[in-house]
Amino acid sequence: MSIQCKFCKSYNANENILCINCSKSLWNKDEVTEKLLNRLHQLEQKYQQELAAIRKDISNFNNVEDSPLESIEVPKKEYT
């Protein structure tokens, strides 16, 4: 869907806040505020989930016991 700018009559994507042609607001102040708050909420949820996953990975990593490295015997090459 698209929205038409009431100033220059250009068509813009509904996600746009400003007209791509004349840079004037496509929405009234309340609508812009609502759109920005919705986007902020979406980003907060996304990043809270990512932060929780990273914290879990760190916790899991710290709980893993350090195991000593096992030595590997390399067979000696016989020279003829």
Overview of this protein structure:
- The chain is mainly alpha-helical and 80 residues long.
- 44% of the residues lie in helices and 8% in strands.
- The chain contains one helix and two strands; from the N terminus they run ββα.
- A two-stranded antiparallel ribbon has the order 1-2.
- The longest helix has 35 residues.
- The mean pLDDT is 88.
Topology:
Elements lengths: L1 E3 L6 E3 L15 H35 L17
Antiparallel strand pairs: 1-2
Give helix and strand order, one letter per element, not per position: EEH
What's the main sheet like? 2 strands, antiparallel
Rg, alpha carbons: 29 Å
Mean pLDDT, all residues = 88
State the strand order across the main sheet: 1-2
Which percent band covers the strand fraction? Answer: 5-15%
Q: State the end-to-end CA separation.
A: 80 Å
Count of helical regions: 1
Structural class: mainly alpha
Low-confidence stretches: none
Fraction in helix: 40-55%
| Total number of strands | 2
Describe this structure in a few short sentences.
A two-stranded antiparallel sheet has the order 1-2. Helix content is 44%, strand content 8%. The chain contains 1 helix and 2 strands, in the order ββα.
What keyword list fits this structure?
single chain; 80 residues; mainly alpha; two-stranded antiparallel sheet; 1 helix; 2 strands
